[in-house]
C-alpha cells in the first residue's frame, strides 16, 4: 500500500532568546561538551565574537577560532574544515546568515553539535536545516540539505539591538515573504524545504510572523535606531528568526525566493541584502498573484516605512532594459522546478511585467501619499 504524501514539520532542538544571554550562555552550552570551534567574520569578532571567546575560555572551554572570509562557498567551507585538526564537541556560528550557513555545513560535515548565534535578525537562516551555498563570484550554487537542524539557536536581543536598522528591515523583508510564499506552495500541495508537504502548524506560524511584524515592526525599528531593547524589538526578533524560519522551512518557498536568488544574473545593480531582494520579489509575487489592492498597499506602506526597496532604482536597475530583466526572470524560472505549478502565470514575461508594475505602482503610491 502506498502512503500519502507526508506532511513534515522540522525545527531546531532548542531556541533560546534572552537579553544578555550571550555572556551568560554557559549553562546552555555546557551540555554540548567543552571543546568548541567557532566561526565568525572579522567584523563580528571585533563587535562581540572575541569577547565571547574570552567568556568561553574563562568558563573552561577550549576554543578554536576560524575566520569566515565572506562567502558561503564550497571552497571556503572546505578551507574552514581543513583547518580543524582535532574534532571538537560542537561548532558555534556567530554572525549573519552566510556565516551561520557555513557553521551548519561544518557541523554536518564533522557530525558534531551545531550552535547558532545570530548577531542580526536579518534573515531566518538561523533556524533551518539547510545552508544556501554560493559560488565564489556570489552567484547561487545550491541549497544544501542537512540531516539535522541546529541543536541550539541562541538569540541575544541586546547584541542585535546594536546593529544598524537596515539589517532588521532586511529581516522583515525575508519574514514577510514567508506566509505569502508558503500559501502559494500550500495551495498546490507542493513540496517544502522539509521534503514533505506543509502542515497547518507551519502555515499558522508563518501567519504569526507576519502579524507580529505588522503589529510591532515600526516601533521595533525605532527602538533599533535608538539601539535599545524593547518588548516590540524582542517580538519582531522572534518573528524574523524563529517564526519565519519554522514557517518557511516547513511551509515552502516559492516565486519570491526563486526570483531573489536570480538577481546576480543581471550583473549590475546595488549590493543588496538577502531580505531586501526578497522584499522587492515579494511585491512582484503579490502582483503576479493579482493580490487585492489593500493587501499590496499594506506591504508597500510598511516597506516604505522601514526603507525596503520598492522601485527599480532602489535595486540600482532604474535603466535596466526588458532584455536585462528577462535574464533575471529566465534564471528564476529555470532554477525552481515547481514554479510552473503555481496557481498564477510564472512565465519569464509575467515576471518581468510584474517587476515593472511594482516599480510604477510604488512611484504612484508614493506620489499620492506625498500629495495627501
Ligand atoms: N539557510 C537558510 O535557510 C537561509 C535563509 C535565509 C537566508 N539565508 C542566507 O543568508 C545570507 C544572508 O545573510 P545576511 O543578510 O545576514 O547577510 P550576510 O551574512 O551576507 O552579512 C552580514 C553582514 O553583517 C555583518 N554583521 C553581523 N552582525 C553584525 C552586527 N551585530 N552589527 C553590524 N554588522 C554585523 C557581518 O560582518 C556581515 O558583513 C544569504 O547567503 C542567504 O542566502 C539562508
Ligand atoms: Zn529568505
UniProtKB/TrEMBL annotation:
Residues 12-157 form the Alcohol dehydrogenase iron-type/glycerol dehydrogenase GldA domain. This is Glycerol dehydrogenase. The keyword Zinc applies. It comes from Lacticaseibacillus chiayiensis. Zn(2+) binds at residue 274. GO terms for molecular function: glycerol dehydrogenase (NAD+) activity; metal ion binding. Belongs to the iron-containing alcohol dehydrogenase family. InterPro entries: ADH_Fe/GldA, ADH_Fe_CS, Glycerol_DH.
